[in-house]
């Protein structure tokens, strides 16, 4: 991270509106950055949180102070200075631009390729939009349908106020404060995020998505998501969107917790396309995310992710298969280009009997990027008849990138069946030649082959997402042919 | 006094017994400093995540056995591949036994590290090769270097084929209540030459022994090296075996490791491919039980284009045995057209056995074919039923299937006598007599 100088701060203050009570005056110059107990308290107070939440945050902060930043991941980056970051910024109220004409044409070009509607384009680029925009009404209708079914879907700050019993019971139950450095940091300072509760036996009638929750947009860099699916319920949750996010925050440390009670099913899909830095590797977002799900009896959690953005990605959506007969799935496509680095994978912890897990990971590296798969499959001694299948395929484009596989397989039960296989290859010249012969130019041919390579994972995405994700893959790899 | 302090303070006594003016001694002193700094590895290090040396290091090992221990040929015959005519280097408690050995300087040099260090004829070879590929920044490897003085020295000059295989056997007599051995082997195989080597560590009593062995092997252009490690020691001894192989273009090296015995066995096996069109083979069979622990840590470093490597490790784990496989294939940017294959298959026979497997690929070149696979499972119940329904008792049926499971590692063993011996060892280990040779 570049050193955050006073000049930068002044620059930032021009575009951002700080709202904290005790920062209103000239104190700006000395106080807005840094982290201490006071700041944690201030965040909590700002959000009007109850006492127990403030304590919970402070506990996390104290743990965080004792922790060291992990270094084991296969990524290299300049460590952020945690005292140089501002930990609370209210959502941007002022539009950045007055009309679309002022927006970076490159960005608009990408929007066009993704087929995003004009209104949405404005919204995403930070252009002032009319309040009666389509999606607002869409969101309102959605809310009504959900409320009828008893589904709670709101921001986590709202949930802390309105459903404290649920939040108190489940927050930190899957990702405890002390879990890791970034999770502790997030627990102390999380700005906002989503909360979702599906009551017993309810099948959520639509894909829940943060994308539609426009009034909650700009939840900031420390997002906290908590999804609870009560017995026998089902929910499919979408996070992120395919549109490139030009975010000035360099560090993103989110925490996602999923709880699937008996017979419940959660499907969690992510498309991540944060700013990856320019083609020389300058700038870009650091994405350090902790995602974990807990499965009770007969429950199922399925993670699907398409990771194309961020300069550094460090993310391991995991499943703790606690209940008997529970199922964990992980489908991932990670694309890195230019100087991007990704260290991603999953953990499948088998505790219950007859638990099953499937891991399909596709890594595509191009340019000068590094792409690593790191996964753990752990079969504990009581997990009889546990079954795991892992497949990690890597595709290399060009001879300056790297693809790495670091699987950890730990088995303590003789009835376990674990299979892991990995391959690394490149796009065959004969494949490209075949396409060329049929009048498909090389760039299109590569897109075609990459899509075929990622098919298994793309198929797992909800339909409307899959189409966009496919296009996104093409765009991410543009110019990597050589 | 813990073992590290004891080792460091005994270095002065060690210096009195060796030629301190030899150029090697500077290497030893530097290595001692490195060991003092690094110490023994702990589980905090990623490479030692699944293997703890704590228990092994607790014993009060004596470092320099004093008594002259003599053994007769009949005492050791059963540990040799005696139906095979070989050169022999026999070390007893780390000391050379001339009447049990059979060395040569005729065309090829099969002798001792100590004599190679003392003869000026070998000085250029020692200067060129000694400690060149030993792992850096590793406490145990530095420790071996610091105390290196005895072991096997094998030198095959250009265009020579060693006329018979070479056996290198380290015996521990148990005259000391606990003993630490640090053999150091150097094997140089020059252009177009060929050698087959069989290595074994054997303890004759229940007294604990810790062996920290380092072997450096250099295969020059078009050389062929065929190396067999038979690890069937009694279950009170521990072995840390470090083998480093540097290959030049078109050379072909194979290492087979058979781990059946020992309390704790750790194999660090590293291949460095420094030329084109090299072939490397790493194979192993592990069959352990009770509280035995076997850890295979391998690295194949592909540096140049058009090379191949094949890894195949099979493991069968019973009782509370712990198996670890940590294999790494590293393909550098220049190493295009690499073909690397890595496979690790495990059978868990008991509920308390553990397997930790970490097959890793690190690839920086795009035009490569690299794959790895890892499986953990049990014997197929249907196949077992098939055998039983044909009148084969359950125990024998299981053994047959385990044989079949391990067999493709044995297929590439080039010396029939070794194959026969390993088959016998497997039958013993599985406690069956199938009445025929497989």
Low-confidence stretches of chain B: none
**Residue share in helices of chain A?**
25-40%
Strand segment count of chain A? 20
Number of domains of chain B: 2
Shape of chain A: globular
**What is the typical, i.e. mean, pLDDT of chain B?**
90
Identify the strand order in the major beta sheet of chain A. 3-5-8-10-13-16-18-20
Mean pLDDT of chain A: 78
How far is the N terminus from the C terminus of chain A? 30 Å
Oligomer: heterodimer
What structural class should be given to the helix and strand makeup of chain B?
Answer: alpha/beta
Main pleated-sheet profile of chain B: 10 strands, mixed
- Figure out the total of helices of chain A: 12
Strand order of the largest sheet of chain B: 2-1-5-8-10-12-14-16-18-20
3D structure, described in words:
The complex is a heterodimer of chains A (482) and B (438). With 482 residues, chain A is α/β, with parallel strands linked by helices. Chain A is 28% helix and 28% strand. Chain A has helices at 6-15, 37-46, 51-66, 105-114, 118-125, 134-149, 156-162, 164-170, 181-189, 429-437, 442-458, 463-476, and strands at residues 152-155, 192-198, 208-209, 223-229, 234-239, 251-252, 255-260, 265-272, 286-295, 300-307, 312-315, 318-321, 327-336, 341-344, 347-350, 356-365, 370-379, 387-396, 402-411, 417-426. In chain A, the strands form two sheets. Chain A has an eight-stranded parallel beta sheet with strand order 3-5-8-10-13-16-18-20, with helices on one face. In chain A, strands 9-11-14-17-15-12 form a six-stranded parallel beta barrel. The longest helix of chain A is centred in the C-terminal third of the chain and has 17 residues, at 442-458. Mean pLDDT of chain A is 78; it is low at 12-31, 91-95, 126-138 and 211-219. Chain B has helices at residues 3-9, 11-17, 23-38, 54-57, 73-76, 113-118, 123-129, 139-146, 381-389, 394-410, 416-430, and strands at 87-92, 95-96, 109-112, 152-156, 166-172, 179-181, 184-189, 194-203, 209-219, 224-231, 238-247, 252-259, 264-273, 279-288, 293-302, 308-317, 322-331, 339-348, 354-363, 369-377. By secondary structure, chain B is α/β, with parallel strands linked by helices. In chain B, the strands form two sheets. Chain B has a ten-stranded mixed beta sheet with strand order 2-1-5-8-10-12-14-16-18-20, covered by helices on one side. In chain B, strands 3, 4, 6, 7, 9, 11, 13, 15, 17 and 19 form a ten-stranded mixed beta sheet that branches. Chain B starts with a helix and ends in an 8-residue tail after the last helix. The interface between A and B is medium-sized, with 35 and 35 residues. Strand 19 of chain A pairs antiparallel with strand 19 (354-363) of chain B.
């Amino acid at each position: 991270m570049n050193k955050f100088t006073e000049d930068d701060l002044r620059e930032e203050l021009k575009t951002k509106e700080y709202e904290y009570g005790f920062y209103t005056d000239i104190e700006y110059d000395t106080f807005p950055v840094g982290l201490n107990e006071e700041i944690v308290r201030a965040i909590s107070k700002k959000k009007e949180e109850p006492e127990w939440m403030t304590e919970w945050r402070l506990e996390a902060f104290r743990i965080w102070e004792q922790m060291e930043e992990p270094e084991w991941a296969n990524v290299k980056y300049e460590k952020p200075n945690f005292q140089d970051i501002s930990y609370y910024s209210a959502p941007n109220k002022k539009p950045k631009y007055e009309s679309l004409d002022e927006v970076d044409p490159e960005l608009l070009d990408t929007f066009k390729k993704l087929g995003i509607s004009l209104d949405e384009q404005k919204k995403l680029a930070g252009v002032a939009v009319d309040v009666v925009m389509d999606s607002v009404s869409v969101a309102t209708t959605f809310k009504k349908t959900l409320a009828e079914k008893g589904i709670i879907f709101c921001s986590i700050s709202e949930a802390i106020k309105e459903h404290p019993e649920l939040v108190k019971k489940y927050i930190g139950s899957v990702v405890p404060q002390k879990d890791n450095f970034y999770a502790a940091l997030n627990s102390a300072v999380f700005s906002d995020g989503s909360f979702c509760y599906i009551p017993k036996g309810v099948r959520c009638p639509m894909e829940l998505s943060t994308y539609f929750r426009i009034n909650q947009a700009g939840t900031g860099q420390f997002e906290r998501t908590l999804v609870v699916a009560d017995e026998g319920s089902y929910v499919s949750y979408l996070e992120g969107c395919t549109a490139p996010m030009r975010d000035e925050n360099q560090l993103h440390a989110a925490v996602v917790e999923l709880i699937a009670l008996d017979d419940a099913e959660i499907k969690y899909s992510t498309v991540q396309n944060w700013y990856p830095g320019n083609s020389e590797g300058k700038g870009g977002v650091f994405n350090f995310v902790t995602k974990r799900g807990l499965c009770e009896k007969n429950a199922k959690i399925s993670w699907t992710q398409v990771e194309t953005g961020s300069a550094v990605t460090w993310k391991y959506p995991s499943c703790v298969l606690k209940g008997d007969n529970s199922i964990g799935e992980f489908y991932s496509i990670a694309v890195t280009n230019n100087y991007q680095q990704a260290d991603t994978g999953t953990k499948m912890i088998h505790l219950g009997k007859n638990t099953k897990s499937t891991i399909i990971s596709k890594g595509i590296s191009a340019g000068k990027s590094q792409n690593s798969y790191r996964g753990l499959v752990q079969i504990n001694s009581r997990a009889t008849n546990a079954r795991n299948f892992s497949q990690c395929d890597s595709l290399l484009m060009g001879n300056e990138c790297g693809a790495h596989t670091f699987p950890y397989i730990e088995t303590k039960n003789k009835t376990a069946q674990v299979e892991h296989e990995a391959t690394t290859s490149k796009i065959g010249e004969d494949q490209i030649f075949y396409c060329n012969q049929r009048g498909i130019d090389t760039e299109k041919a590569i897109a075609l082959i990459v899509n075929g390579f990622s098919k298994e994972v793309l198929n797992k995405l909800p339909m409307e997402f899959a189409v966009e994700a496919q296009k996104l893959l093409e765009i991410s790899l543009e110019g990597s042919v050589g | 006094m813990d073992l590290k302090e004891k080792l460091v303070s005994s270095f002065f006594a060690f210096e009195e017994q060796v030629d301190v003016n030899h150029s090697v001694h500077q290497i030893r002193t530097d290595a001692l400093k490195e060991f003092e700094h690094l110490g023994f590895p702990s589980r905090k290090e990623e490479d030692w995540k699944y293997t703890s040396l704590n228990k092994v290091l607790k014993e009060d090992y004596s470092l320099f056995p004093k008594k002259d221990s003599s053994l007769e040929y009949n005492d050791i015959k059963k540990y040799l591949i005696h139906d095979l005519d070989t050169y022999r280097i026999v070390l007893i408690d780390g000391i050379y036994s001339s009447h049990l050995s059979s060395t040569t300087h005729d065309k090829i040099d099969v002798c001792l590290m100590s004599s190679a260090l003392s003869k000026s004829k070998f000085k250029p070879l020692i200067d060129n090769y000694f400690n060149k590929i030993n792992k850096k920044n590793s406490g145990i490897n530095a420790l071996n270097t610091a105390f290196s003085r005895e072991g096997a020295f094998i030198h095959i000059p250009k265009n020579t084929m060693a006329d018979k295989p070479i056996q290198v056997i380290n015996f521990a007599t148990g005259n000391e209540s606990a003993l630490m051995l640090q053999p150091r082997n150097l094997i140089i195989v020059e252009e177009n030459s060929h050698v087959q080597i069989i290595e074994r560590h054997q303890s004759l009593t229940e007294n604990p022994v810790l062996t920290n062995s380092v072997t450096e092997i250099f295969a020059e252009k078009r050389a062929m090296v065929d190396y067999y490690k038979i690890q069937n020691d009694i279950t009170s001894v521990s072995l840390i075996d470090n083998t480093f192989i540097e290959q030049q273009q078109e050379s072909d090296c194979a290492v087979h490791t058979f781990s059946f015995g020992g309390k704790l066995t750790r194999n660090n096996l590293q291949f460095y491919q420094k030329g084109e069109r090299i072939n490397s083979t790493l194979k192993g069979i592990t069959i352990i039980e009770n509280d035995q622990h076997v850890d295979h840590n391998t690295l194949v470093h592909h540096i140049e284009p058009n090379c191949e490597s094949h890894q195949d490790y099979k493991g069968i784990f019973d009782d509370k045995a712990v198996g670890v496989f940590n294999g790494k294939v590293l393909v550098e940017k220049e190493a295009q057209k690499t073909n690397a294959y890595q496979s690790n298959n495990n059978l868990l026979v008991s509920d308390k056995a553990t397997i930790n497997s970490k097959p890793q690929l690190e690839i920086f070149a795009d035009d490569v074919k690299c794959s790895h696979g890892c499986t953990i499972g049990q014997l197929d119940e249907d196949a077992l039923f098939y055998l039983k329904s044909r009148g084969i008792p359950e125990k024998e049926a299981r053994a047959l299937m385990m044989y079949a499971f391990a067999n493709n590692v044995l297929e590439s063993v080039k010396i029939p006598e070794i194959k026969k011996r390993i088959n016998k060892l497997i039958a013993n280990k599985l406690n069956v007599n199938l009445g025929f040779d497989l």
